[in-house]
Amino acid sequence: MAVSENGASKLQMAQHGSIDDGARDIDAVGRNRLALSQIGIAWTESAALRTVVELDVPRILAKHAAPPDHAMSAQQLLQCMPRASNPNAGALQHLMQLLACKGLFTEHLEYHNSSGVAGDHLGGSVVRTYALNSISRQLVGDNPSDSMANFALQMTMGPHVAATLQHLGEAILTSADPFQLAHGVNYFEFLAKHPEYLNVFQNAMAERSQAETGPLLLTRYKGFNSVKGLMDVGGGTGAILAQIVRHYPHITHAVNFDLPEVVALSPAHPGVEHVGGDMFESIPVGCDAIFMKKLLHDWDDEACIKILKKCYEALPESGGKVILVEGVLSPKETPGNTNAKSNTMEDEFVLRSSVIMFVHCVGGKERSEHDFHRLVTAAGFRNFQLLCKLDVSYVMEAYK
Ligand SMILES: C[S@@+](CC[C@H](N)C(=O)[O-])C[C@H]1O[C@@H](n2cnc3c(N)ncnc32)[C@H](O)[C@@H]1O
């Protein structure tokens, strides 16, 4: 044991609160190393989430967990999985334990004695069971469109994303599209060739619209009151447009415009016409307002200006507006602020989203209010306003 000049050991000093600088340094280094490791292994919670959604754990809990605590052990969960031919309950439990630690499930501990009887038997075995809580209940719905299960799959790392991550450094050094480097085509071309990924992507977008953004948009934003004809450019399956026309029946002309392969798989919605096309070629005329949600963040500035110019051309000569719903980098995250540090969950989400856009899309990124103003001005719009905040996104309007 190391002993100091006055004869006291480091352990004694630590115990009496007079630890010396050397020992404090070791603690600080240890803490820094742990902080570094935590960032490095953040993928484990994402992988655990993806796996339990793939294995349908939330739905099994919703269907089979019994009162009083509505909880199941890993072993019981596996008994509800017909494909489990030689299950590893220990591994599933570790995933559930991590997710419970991150707040996704509630964990119950029960002590059992050697005969398997429950009670406070120290020295016996511990049985861990898991129940849905208010967060994991988002992964279950009365019908598939109420749940965020596809969104969880879309946000976590599918094999196409894992392959793309190998090219991020090269993409940074060469300004290439990392997705294209990995797959030979850009993200939307890839989706067109892989219906299984396209389905998850479009369902994920619809789930987010239905569960999160839609309700807030309808209560907080009043700009649809004056609109007669509304087009959603890049509207996916038309989920949000369907909500808007249900809420504002005075909108008599509603067009959901997206790529042909997307509108082909979109369900019919009363009052909504699906039109397939390419927004870089032309956007149909006939609406006095164009809505674009989470669309510009997929593209670089040059492409955004091209899209906005096509919107400008499609709006009536007499005027009209573009309604944008996008994440907005908070002022403290914008260039020039040397104190940039994310404080809120929303700020952190938008920063993470910017990385996701870089991974998926050529030049895609999140932007500041100032960036959006610059883009719409470059496309010819005469005025711009940021109007209200939704979940992690804001509503902005640009006027022709
Ligand atoms: C990030 S998603 C947003 C979907 C929807 N607005 C939402 O928020 O849920 C971008 C959408 O743009 C569509 N898109 C991509 N390229 C397009 C193009 N060239 N013309 C029309 N739509 C396009 C995609 O198919 C996709 O539905």
UniProtKB/TrEMBL annotation:
Keywords: Methyltransferase, S-adenosyl-L-methionine, Transferase
Species this chain originates from: Ceratodon purpureus (Fire moss)
Name of this protein: O-methyltransferase domain-containing protein
Active site: 297
Residue span(s) of domain O-methyltransferase dimerisation: 45-137
InterPro entries per the UniProt record, alphabetical: COMT-like, COMT_C, COMT_dimerisation, SAM-dependent_MTases_sf, WH-like_DNA-bd_sf, WH_DNA-bd_sf
Residue ranges constituting the O-methyltransferase C-terminal domain according to the UniProt record: 166-382
Superkingdom: Eukaryota
Molecular function per GO: O-methyltransferase activity; protein dimerization activity
Any GO BP: methylation
Xref: SUPFAM superfamilies: S-adenosyl-L-methionine-dependent methyltransferases (SSF53335), Winged helix' DNA-binding domain (SSF46785)
